[in-house]
Design goal:
The chain has 75 residues and is α/β, with parallel strands linked by helices. 27% of the residues lie in helices and 27% in strands. It contains three helices and four strands. Strand 3, helix 3 and strand 4 form a beta-alpha-beta unit.
Amino acid sequence: MSAVARAAVIGEATAVSGYGLAGAIVYPADTRAQAVAAWRSLPAQVAVVLLTARAASWVDQLPRPGDLLVVVMPS
């Protein structure tokens, strides 16, 4: 049995909390440290990461784990 690809969302809690209702893994990150920790802890089955603009600026220079499709929310 193969693993199912998942979506993850990283960003300010007020902007990302609702994505959990659609089945995404939600990582509320109101600080740079929280965003970096979330980025580095993404599970292997995550194929798509949706970032708020602020979270994207915080993880922009970090290496991407695996082969991810990264989407940045418009601000």
